Amino acid sequence: xxxxxxxxxxxxxxxxxxxxxxxxxxxxxxxxxxxxxxxxxxxxxxxxxxxxxxxxxxxxxxxxxxxxxxxxxxxxxxxxxxxxxxxxxxxxxxxxxxxxxxxxxxxxxxxxxxxxxxxxxxxxxxxxxxxxxxxxxxxxxxxxxxxxxxxxxxxxxxxxxxxxxxxxxxxxxxxxxxxxxxxxxxxxxxxxxxxxxxx
Amino acid sequence: xxxxxxxxxxxxxxxxxxxxxxxxxxxxxxxxxxxxxxxxxxxxxxxxxxxxxxxxxxxxxxxxxxxxxxxxxxxxxxxxxxxxxxxxxxxxxxxxxxxxxxxxxxxxxxxxxxxxxxxxxxxxxxxxxxxxxxxxxxxxxxxxx
Lengths: 199, 145
Prior knowledge:
By secondary structure, chain A is of the alpha+beta class. Chain A folds into 2 domains: 1-30; 46-193, no CATH class. Helices cover 23% and strands 35% of the residues of chain A. Chain A is built from 5 helices and 11 strands. Chain A has helices spanning 2-28, 45-48, 60-63, 67-70, 118-124, and strands at residues 79-87, 94-99, 104-109, 112-117, 126-133, 138-144, 150-154, 160-164, 169-174, 180-185, 188-193. In chain A, strand 2 and strand 3 form a beta hairpin. Residues 20-47 of chain A have low confidence and may be disordered. By secondary structure, chain B is an alpha+beta fold. In chain B, strands 1-10-4-7 form a 4-stranded antiparallel sheet, with no helix packed on it. In chain B, strands 3-8-5-6 form a 4-stranded antiparallel sheet, with no helix packed on it. Residues 1-9 and 18-49 of chain B have low confidence and may be disordered. The relative contact order of chain B is 0.23. Chains A and B meet through helix 1, strand 3, strand 4 and strand 5 of A and helix 1, strand 5, strand 6 and strand 7 of B.
C-alpha cells in the first residue's frame, strides 16, 4: 500500500514537473511581441482627421504587417502595428500606420520607414515619402489627405505623370529620381522638389 | 498473468509514457529557439533577428544644417540600418542616406536598412549621412553596423 502511494506521488511530481518545464520553455522562447497599442479612441483628433484610410475597419488577415517586418529594428519604437492598413503599391507590400506617439502617419515596407507629420498633411494636403535601395527602382509615395485625389510627378527627363490617390496613398516606381511632385492642397498648389540621388 | 503482476506493470508504463511526453515536448518547443541562438548573424541570414549581430552604434548631429547639406556619421562602417529624425517644433523633410546603397526620406522621421530584411551585413563599408530639406534645422542621425 505504502509503495503504491509512493508511486502515485512520484507520478504526480513528474507530471507537475513536466507542466512546469513546458510553461517556462514556452513563455521564455520566441521574440518579444510588440507592446499592446493604445485603443484608437486615445489618438489625438489631429491624428485622425485627414486620413480616412486609417479609420476604415481593419481586416486582420489582409491588413496585418507580417511579424518579420513589424519586428524589424527600424519599426520597433516608431510605429503602432495594430493601426496598419495595407495600401495599393507596385512591386512591394506597403502599409500605412500611425506612429507610436500618434503625431504622424508612416509608410511601412520591408526595410523602409517614412513618416509624415499629421499637421503637415493637414496643412499641405500631402506628405511625400521616398525609398530607394541599390539595384531597385525609386519608390515615390505620398500620404494624402482625404481631399487630394491626384498628384503630378515630374519625371527625371521632363514629362509629367499624373498619379491617382487611392486610400490616402499614392505610389509610383521610377528608374531615376523624379524632379518634383505637385498637387492641389488646402492652400492651393503645392510643389515638392526631390533630393538628388548620389553615390 | 497474475493480477498482482498487471498491477506492477501499470505504474512503470505510466512513468515511461510521462517521460516520453516530456522529452517530446522539450524537443518540439526547444528546437527552434536553439536554432536561432546558434545562427551566424554577422553576415545576415533568414534565421537572424533584425538587430542581432550589430556591434557598432552611432548617434550624431552637426547642429543646425542648411538645406541639401549632408551631415555625416563619423567614419565609414558596414552600416546595416540608419535613421534621420527631427524632434524640434514644427516639421521638416529629412533623409537618411546609406551612401548610394539606400535612401529613405520623410517628414521628421525616415529610416532605411541596407537590406530589405534589415539583417546585419559585414561586407560593404560606406558613409552614412542625414539631410534636411527646408529651413535650417538640427537633424539627428542614428545608425548601427
